[in-house]
Design a protein that fits this description.
This protein has two helices and six strands; from the N terminus they run ββββαββα. With about 150 residues, it is mainly beta. Strands 1-3-4-6-5 form a five-stranded mixed β-barrel. It starts with 6 loop residues before the first strand and ends in a 33-residue tail after the last helix.
């Protein structure tokens, strides 16, 4: 029988990403993600229940997450589940399931996340969808024709 281990989550970061280095020098970034679940209770009212996930990103993606993301920022994570267990300092056994990110998509803009302003999910990162301050580069002298 084939096995599939894939997770796709879209939510908001619950804390600032933490970047560390392994002893071999590889970058690893840990983040918390909240994803709301919505259901009807027995009275027929809609109730929102948050689910919290620990996300781990590696390598260049870890460095980018640390550099550009912050608490409250909306992200989409594509990854796999990973089970870890260890012995705590008091001798007790601990375990957790994490999402190891294959891909992290930054949603919205950094400025809007810091201001608490909602941003359209389709807006390119770094551009403010509420303004039209983007201007294409000016054509160079003598570039009157489209090159195709």
């Amino acid at each position: 029988m084939a096995s599939i281990n894939r997770v796709v989550l879209v939510g908001n970061l619950t804390r600032d990403p933490e970047l560390r280095q392994t002893p071999s020098g590889k970058s690893v970034c840990t983040m918390g993600l909240a994803v709301n679940d919505r259901y009807k209770n027995d009275a027929g009212e809609w109730v929102e229940k948050p689910n919290f996930f620990d996300i781990v990103a590696w390598g260049a993606q870890a460095e980018n997450c640390s550099r550009y993301l912050s608490k409250g920022r909306p992200v989409a994570v594509d990854g796999r589940l990973s089970f870890r267990s260890w012995e705590a300092q008091d001798g007790s056994k601990r375990s957790k399931v994490e999402v190891v990110a294959t891909s992290v998509q930054f949603l919205g803009s950094r400025d809007a996340a810091q201001a608490g302003t909602p941003v359209a999910a389709g807006a390119p990162s770094g551009l403010n969808p509420d303004t039209s301050d983007f201007e294409p580069p000016a054509a160079a002298e003598g570039d009157d024709e489209i090159p195709f």
